[in-house]
């Protein structure tokens, strides 16, 4: 007798429908692109161009000391923008530190979206206003949060879905496993978007996983896996929109892998030339998300030189506003360090707060004395 003869045993699900396609799903450059809504293409294009300019401006702000760090998503704009546009008004976004563009495309103020990266301890925006969780620096911790929110929404009969974004490196975290397992067991309305950009800082894909694709990991949890060309904005938008609709309609979670590439270094503090070849970067530049979309729109008569210039001008306006507002010094109260740590402060914290308050008062007194008696 083998386990197969045991009446109690049977597979819980047919694995075949959960398997991703062999090739990443594409729309641009295929006959199906002719059916794409011009309004959607225009919206994606404008946001992609503005997003790239935002990345460039934010990186420049790190060099001017206005931002502590900036993880650029240049090359990955199609994933960022398509993710934001695939959300319904009541859905929630759970971003990682690289997903500022998705956060801004969702409607968060471009300056407020940078608060955390500026070094402030605040999130910078009220997560409830646009339904955007804080940008998560600890890898994958946003995933169980997304599952919890989605599960709670389902329990209360609220047709809300959550979209959680994570990198290829983040899939090796325990939180990734726990989130996907709970999501599938609870049938939670959540979509996981893995942006496979080839690297986790200097760790290449080959050292990250031996799985055929990240999308295949879905099968082990009992949810469908979808594979998409992450530089094809309408394709990412289609795949995520379908998955979010499915989640909202009670169909359960989906794992989407978007195959893309990080054109810039990991952050301004990283030198990518130390671990990857220029040839590889050049090959991905030839598969640029903005150029792919431009080609399609130009061929369909939806974009000409004027349209390109208009998009570039709008991007410049955004960058100028970002520059101007980021150059204004924020008014910070050092005493806020002690707020919101505990509902009731510990004796040690009270002592430290008193010490800082005394130091600040002494500094202010010294400043006043200096003003009263200016040095000759
Ligand atoms: C829990 C945790 N461990 C380690 C780190 C340090 N760390 C920051 S980014 C990063 C690489 C993540 O790579 P990936 O998930 O592929 O995202 P990408 O940066 O490529 O967008 C690591 C290891 C961290 N932030 N959090
Ligand atoms: Mg990565």
Automatic annotation (TrEMBL):
Coiled coil: none annotated. Pfam families: E1_dh. Keywords: Oxidoreductase, Pyruvate, Thiamine pyrophosphate. Its cofactor is thiamine diphosphate. The keyword Transcription regulation does not apply. Transmembrane segments: none annotated. Residues 55-330 form the Dehydrogenase E1 component domain. This is Pyruvate dehydrogenase (Acetyl-transferring) E1 component subunit alpha.
């Amino acid at each position: 007798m083998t386990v197969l003869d045991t009446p109690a045993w049977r597979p819980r699900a047919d694995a075949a429908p959960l398997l991703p396609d062999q090739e990443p799903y594409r729309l641009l450059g295929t006959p199906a692109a002719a059916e794409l809504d011009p309004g959607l293409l225009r919206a994606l294009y404008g946001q992609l161009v503005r997003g790239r300019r935002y990345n460039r401006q934010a990186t420049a702000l790190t060099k001017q000391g206005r931002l502590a760090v900036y993880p650029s998503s240049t090359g990955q704009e199609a994933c960022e923008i398509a993710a934001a546009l695939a959300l319904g008004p009541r859905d929630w976004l759970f971003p990682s530190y690289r997903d500022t563009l998705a956060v801004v495309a969702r409607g968060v103020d471009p300056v407020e979206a940078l608060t955390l990266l500026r070094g402030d301890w605040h999130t910078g925006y009220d997560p409830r206003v646009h339904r955007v969780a804080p940008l998560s620096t600890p890898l994958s911790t946003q995933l169980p949060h997304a599952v919890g929110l989605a599960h709670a929404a389902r329990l209360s009969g609220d047709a809300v879905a959550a979209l959680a974004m994570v990198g290829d490196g983040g899939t090796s975290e325990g939180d990734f496993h726990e989130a996907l397992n709970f999501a599938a067991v609870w049938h939670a309305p959540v979509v996981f978007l893995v942006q496979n950009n080839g690297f986790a800082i200097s760790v290449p894909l080959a050292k990250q996983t031996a799985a055929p694709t990240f999308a295949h990991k879905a099968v082990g949890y009992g949810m469908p896996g979808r594979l998409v060309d992450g530089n094809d904005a309408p394709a990412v938008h289609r795949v995520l929109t379908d998955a979010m609709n499915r989640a909202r309609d009670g169909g359960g979670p989906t794992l989407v892998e978007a195959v893309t590439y990080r054109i810039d270094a990991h952050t301004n503090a990283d030198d990518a030339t130390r671990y990857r070849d220029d040839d590889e970067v050049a090959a991905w530049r030839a598969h640029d998300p903005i150029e792919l979309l431009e080609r399609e729109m130009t061929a369909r008569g939806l974009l000409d030189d004027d349209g390109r210039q208009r998009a570039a001008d709008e991007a410049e306006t955004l960058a100028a506003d970002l520059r101007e507002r980021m150059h204004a010094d924020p008014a910070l109260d050092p005493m806020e360090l002690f707020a919101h740590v505990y509902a009731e402060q510990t004796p040690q914290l009270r002592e430290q707060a008193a010490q800082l308050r005394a130091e600040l008062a002494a500094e202010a007194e010294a400043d006043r004395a200096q003003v009263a008696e200016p040095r000759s």
